[in-house]
Amino acid sequence: MKRFSLLLLLASLFFYLPLKGQSGKPQEVLTGVYLMNVYDLNLDEHSFFADFYIWFKWRGDIDPTEIEFVNMVEKWGMTMEPFEDTILTLSDGWNYQGYRVEGRFFHPFLLERFPLDKHTLEIHIENPDYPTEALRYVPDTTSPPIHIRPDLMLAGWDILGSGLTPMVHSYGTDFGNPDDRASTFSDLVFTFRLTRPLSYFVLKLLLPLTIVILAALGALLFFPSYVDARISLPVGSLLTAVFLQQSYSDALPDVGYMVLMDKIYLLAYLLIATIILRLILTGNRLREVKKKQMDFNQLKRRERWMAGGFLMAYLLGVLLLVWLA
Known about the structure:
CATH class of the largest domain: Mainly Beta
Radius of gyration: 32 Å
CATH superfamily of the largest domain: Neurotransmitter-gated ion-channel ligand-binding domain
Number of domains: 2
CATH topology of the largest domain: Acetylcholine Binding Protein, Chain: A
Order of helices and strands: HEEEEEEEEEEEEHHHH
CATH architecture of the largest domain: Distorted Sandwich
Shape: elongated
Mean pLDDT: 86
């Protein structure tokens, strides 16, 4: 029985050592990325194109260049050109190889904070042949591990920066093969952070809506007896707000939740509806005011104060929605 246990121990070591190496530590691969271009951000299909260089430096017998990009889509359209025809051995003893990669990658664009939304685009790099016990990808600290082309620009977006983070990817299954327990792999994630310019929110979306609100509030500054002119302003403002909301909604994918700008427009609709209701109540009271010979100036001053109060409520509501987003 002891001999049988000894044979089992030797057999397990025989299969275990080729994966982990004599030191019992996984082979580390220094990895760096240089981003050339990011383009065609498709919010409807939740994807983007990326063009970048990636390189590997390692010491050991395992070739870490047989990688796959976990979140790549349309793999038939991917291009991956190697730096060299064969793996190089540098003067310091490191093995070296790299690729220029271009392809489409998946990213779930969450738009709850639109138009103040920020997105972290990710590219997941993984070797599917060796588990974490045998192979690990780490950022190349011998040189700056991440580079972005200095003149890289993405229309309609501000670039916040990038990062390279080592992670462990566990599939949580043996894929139907109980003899294969290697379901945890080293995963290196390249991140690229983007945000929309603040000017887009303030000048192109919020400013037109604020002008519409001011036009609706202007009805409260008219003399109370001008009923037709007073009611036409908020009604026209309501129709204009609907068209403005439709103009930016057409550029967004269909989502099952309200984005930040939808909530601001909902606040605007409530304010315009309140103004219309106030004008109707004032019109109904107008005959009573004439009959009792009440002071029109008092009624006018009250509505001017209400116009200022409604404007402050709108501005504070917008600030609160932005802060809570």
